[in-house]
Amino acid sequence: MARDMTVPWLVGGDFNVIWDEEEKFGGLPVSLNEVDDFRHCANTCNLVDLGFKGSIFTWWNGKAEEVYIFKRLDRCLANIEFQQTFPGLEVTHLSKIGSDHSPLLLKY
Predict the structure, then answer these.
(1) pLDDT of residue 108
(2) Environment class of residue 7 by beta-carbon count within 10 Å: exposed (0-12), middle (13-18) or buried (19+)?
(3) Minimal CA–CA distance to 39: which of 62, 17, 61, 12?
(4) 10 has which bridge partners?
(5) β-pair type (10-14, 24-25)
(6) Which residue(s) pair with 78 in the sheet?
(7) Each residue of 46-83: pLDDT tens digit?
(8) What's the whole-model pTM score?
């Protein structure tokens, strides 16, 4: 599908997987197979992470102290056509309110 994609393409939301070990704090060790699968999928689709402003972590397991886990599960990926069409786009991780995920704000 990505091979034929010549229009701006944005994919965003909760991918339920991290990109690398730095995007997780606490809990069990990172599964490098999951990370590699996610990276391979994004690369195969010619998508890159648009980056972000705000806290690195967008999800929290709701636990305290020794059992807490923080991860960056939410992100926006886009192809080069999207980046060229919207060169000043910014992704901001907002504060969590009423959810275990931080909402994403796209600003152009």
Answers:
(1) 87
(2) exposed
(3) 17
(4) 78
(5) unpaired
(6) 10, 48
(7) 999 999 999 999 999 999 888 999 999 999 999 999 99
(8) 0.89
